[in-house]
Design a protein that fits this description.
- By secondary structure, the chain is mainly alpha-helical.
- It has one domain.
- The protein is built from 14 helices and 2 strands.
- Strands 1-2 form a two-stranded antiparallel ribbon.
- A hairpin with a 2-residue loop joins strand 1 and strand 2.
- Helix 1 runs antiparallel to helix 3.
- It starts with 8 loop residues before the first helix and ends with a helix.
């Protein structure tokens, strides 16, 4: 039988590494890392999150979601896993926008407060996880939130399918995955780099790819993929293949294959048999994995504050730090401190700040929020059990 633990430690480590790659990807400073193709295409690690989520959720809940109360309790837990941090970061961004309205409305920096993608009408959409349904072209609060909004509704879809069409889920997944990828290929001019527009399709494709990987994992019931040397070789080869793929695809049509590329990575590292898996089990990797959701979500906010602070200080000191550059035919405004090493140090400082803020949000928002909603789910299940218990 396959590993039966509730945690896949190597995959947890992978989750943290993927989150860290997205953090570096978001840095709008001209460091030595900025032009690396692997970093410029690190947006694809969102698809890794979707595949991994499908694998883990199927492992934990596929055999448990059999009744309507099971589904309600499941969604309470999922809501509690995602929403507290999402809402907390929204409050910070809202206060920043309010500060602009009070003090900087005539500053000429960006759009006027509470207009456009941060109009007041976008707030209910943002807080109700509807920002992935194209109700507005997009909302401009915490941009990464599109992915967790999409994932929340895919959780609900997964739960309903477990209740109503469990025996057909593998067939439905085999139909849904290529259908979603083909729709993205047809309508997206930037390949897999879709968010508020076709992000839900992207999430469905990734999540149910992970679901299929888990079902195959259970069906084959393999104990290992070879001895330590063989497993290490397979892990290294898969790692090289993944890095090559991410580095080469850019925003082209081949990028839509990302879930299919990440699927064997999740499969291989679920065995935790090789040297790379051992590295992913190190405390540092596990810490990143534990804090990966906060790391992913706070990076956008930290980058805004960090880059604007540098630009403001430089402007106060009388020199310009921003310039427009072209990467892969895309015009981007970045800050440049005039010395590449200084930009690299700024990147290192930014990453450290992201990790520190993630440590704080994990303890202040994630852990209490998760505990509260998990308790709520337990009380709900207990009440349902009491009501349905046969009378003595």
């Amino acid at each position: 039988m396959p590993v039966t633990t509730n945690r896949y430690l190597a995959l947890d480590g992978w989750r943290g590494i993927a989150a860290l790659m997205i953090v570096v990807y978001r840095f709008e400073g001209e460091s030595d890392f900025y032009y690396l193709p692997f970093i410029r295409n690190a947006y694809l690690f969102v698809d890794f999150f979707f595949v991994l989520s499908g694998f883990v959720i199927a492992h934990s809940y596929f055999d448990k979601l059999k009744t309507a109360p099971d589904l309600v309790a499941f969604m309470i837990r999922r809501f509690g896993r995602l929403w507290p941090l999402h809402a907390g970061l929204f409050v910070v961004l809202f206060l920043m926008e309010a500060a602009r309205w009070v003090m900087g409305i005539r500053s000429g920096i960006g759009a006027e407060p509470f207009t456009g993608v941060r109009a007041l009408g976008t707030i209910p959409v943002e807080l109700s996880f509807l920002n992935g349904f194209h109700i507005y072209s997009q909302t401009g609060w915490n941009l990464p939130s599109w992915s967790i909004a999409a994932e929340f509704w895919v959780y609900l879809l997964f739960g309903f399918l477990c209740l109503l069409m469990r025996r057909m889920m593998i067939v439905l997944a085999l139909v849904a995955i290529p259908s979603c990828l083909l729709l993205i290929l047809k309508f997206s001019p930037t390949g897999m780099d879709v968010t508020f527009n076709y992000g839900l399709l992207r999430c469905v494709a990734g999540f149910f790819t992970g679901f299929l990987v888990n079902r195959l994992w259970v069906l084959l019931s393999l104990k290992a993929i070879g001895n330590f040397f063989q497993a290490s070789l397979i892990e290294v080869i898969s790692l090289v293949f993944m890095v090559t793929f991410v580095s080469l695809v850019d925003l082209g049509s081949w990028s839509v294959a990302a879930p299919l590329i990440f699927a064997p990575i999740v499969w291989i590292f679920a065995f935790e048999g090789g040297v790379v898996s051992r590295l992913l089990k190190f405390p540092a990797s596990q810490w990143l994995g534990q804090h990966s959701y906060s790391i992913y979500m706070v990076a956008f906010l930290v980058e805004i504050i960090f880059s604007r602070s540098i630009i403001a200080v430089a402007h106060f000191m009388g020199f310009e730090t921003t310039r427009s550059i072209r990467v892969e035919s895309i015009e981007t405004l970045v800050f440049d401190l005039g010395w590449r090493l200084a930009n690299d140090l700024a990147l290192a400082l930014y990453v450290c700040i992201v990790l520190a803020v993630s440590w704080l949000t994990f303890r202040v928002l994630e852990v209490p929020g998760r505990s509260y909603f998990n308790g709520l789910a337990k009380r709900y299940r207990h009440q349902k059990a009491v009501k349905t218990a046969p009378a003595v």
